[in-house]
# Entry
Amino acid sequence: MTLSPKPKGKAASGSVVDRMQALVAEDMAAVEDILAARAASPVAVIPDLSGYIVSAGGKRLRPMLTLMAAHAVGKPNHSTHVLAAAVEFIHTATLLHDDVVDESDLRRGKPAAKAIWGEKASILVGDFLFARAFNLLVETRSLAILDRLATASTTIAEGEVRQLAAMSQRDLPTEEYLTIIEAKTGALFEAAAETGALSAGGDAFADAFATYGKNLGLAFQIIDDVLDYGGTTAVIGKSVGDDFRECKITLPVIIAKRRGSDEDRAFWDRVMNPETQVDTDLAHAVHLIRATGAAEATIQEAEAYAALAKAALRTLPESPYREALEDLADFCVSRAF
# Structure
């Protein structure tokens, strides 16, 4: 099931991520070694559970972003590698916590860790990975990098709490939705890109990478939210319809409700309440997202943020790394096609 009839541009295929992986292959090998070593612990459940979710891998977009930023302005070093590993540990820790809060059964197409080891173990191992991340950040010997990732971690937690509070609201303003996803997703993308540049001596380009990362993260999350109403588990790494079943008010819902009839708005009010939603409601929700043009409008919003991300890179010297980062912004949006 797709949301639009055809892909746009050369970034529509997985070739963009493949190209990025090739550009930083040697660096990523070093990062993977650090991840494996630092996920170890004499407490048996920790390496078992952390190894399970870390080895699930995904695309490793955030640590790759750190490495690409470093290459775009200079040369990555050991500090860049431990920083990239720390970024991935922070991301992985948030996934473990999210799956408990959201009651998700799948993660990256596999059973969520909580379904195997239980919710308590998932939360505690998530805490362990957060702690490991900050062990790694200390090794960079950069207070600026440590401060930036500490701030991002705080912002992510605040975003999660804001989203939890928003679930009790009948109508969520678009501005509040954007504030939530900027905190939940944009903050780590922003910090990953900015600190990658800092680690390679690219202080002059740090602000440009911060802007790039924030807008890339917003585009990425907006597309994830629309894919919940028409994507595949392979693309979004979770069960399709999870956001709907969890009664999360995301941008496609906000737009569909605003554009719909009185009857449509009554439908959304009912189904965004876990006590009155029923299993058969998802199909009608998908229909309304499409019939009102909410899917298309949501994708256009993501395209606008992707354009802002690419514009932020214009001050960088031309290189294969800059080109790949520009294409990555297009790729994030092309997942919806």
Summary: Residues 11-330 form a domain with the Farnesyl Diphosphate Synthase fold (CATH 1.10.600.10). The mean pLDDT is 89. The two ends are 9 Å apart (CA to CA). Strands lie at 106-107, 110-111.
